[in-house]
Structures are given as C-alpha cells and as structure tokens.
Design goal:
- By secondary structure, the chain is an alpha+beta fold.
- The chain has one domain.
- It is 23% helix and 24% strand.
- A four-stranded antiparallel beta sheet has the order 2-1-4-3.
- The chain starts with 12 loop residues before the first strand and ends in a 14-residue tail after the last helix.
Length: 127
C-alpha cells in the first residue's frame, strides 16, 4: 500500500523555514515559522494560497509589491514578526519542513489570536 505525502490544506499545522528579501529583521538566516493554515478571520491570505497543496520539502517564492506586504500575509503579519522578526519584506521564500494535524486547542488559540483591530489587519486586537 502506498502512503501519500501529507499536503497543506485547511486547518493543518504548517512549519516553514522562511527567509525574506527587503526585510526588516535582526538577521539574514532562515528561521522556523509555524502557523495553522486557514484560520484567518478574513479568509485565506495570498501567502497561504501559494502554500496550498504543497508537501514537506517543497519550496515557494512570493514576490511582494512595495506596499503589499500587509495584504499578502494578512493575519500572519503579527506572528511572522513575533516568531522570526519579519516586519516587512519584498519577497518571501519558504521551504515546507512539517505538516501535521494540530490539536484542537491549537486551532482554537490560532483562531482567537487572529482577530483584527480593523485598522491594520495584523491580528493585534487594537493599537
């Protein structure tokens, strides 16, 4: 029996090694970023869309317009900053390093933290 590789889909826990060009971060090293796919209050972000269907080992590159970072990453803006220090970028490059089924509490926590202050869409809950 052949087992298929898991792919990124709704409510999977995704681990990425991610680097960014044109960024404001502490260093240029690839860093691990983890999130639950598809829990944003405003739906799937453009960044998530390029990851859909990918498997462990797959690479993606997403070029971002000069003013498009916030729109591209949506509710992942704050987690990207908190986990790996990316505040903005003109290009995101990621390698999928893990895809798992999250625990229910992880999904609830991700959904709860995905609320937006309506000002910036970052999920901060208000400035």
């Amino acid at each position: 029996m052949t087992r298929t590789k898991p792919t990124i889909e709704n409510l999977t826990k995704v681990s990425l090694n991610i680097t960014a060009e044109g960024k404001t971060t502490p260093n240029d090293q690839a860093a691990v970023f983890e999130f639950i796919y598809g829990v944003g209050a405003d739906g799937i972000t453009p960044f998530e869309k390029v990851l859909f269907g990918k498997s462990v080992g797959d690479h993606v590159r997403m070029d971002i317009g000069p003013a498009g970072y916030r729109e591209t990453v949506g509710h992942l803006e704050l987690p990207l900053f908190e986990q790996i220090g990316i505040a903005t970028a003109t290009c995101l490059m990621a390698t999928v390093t893990g895809i798992t089924k999250p625990e229910d509490r992880e999904v609830v926590k991700a959904m709860a933290s995905g609320g937006s202050c309506s000002d910036c869409g970052c999920g901060c809950g208000g400035h």
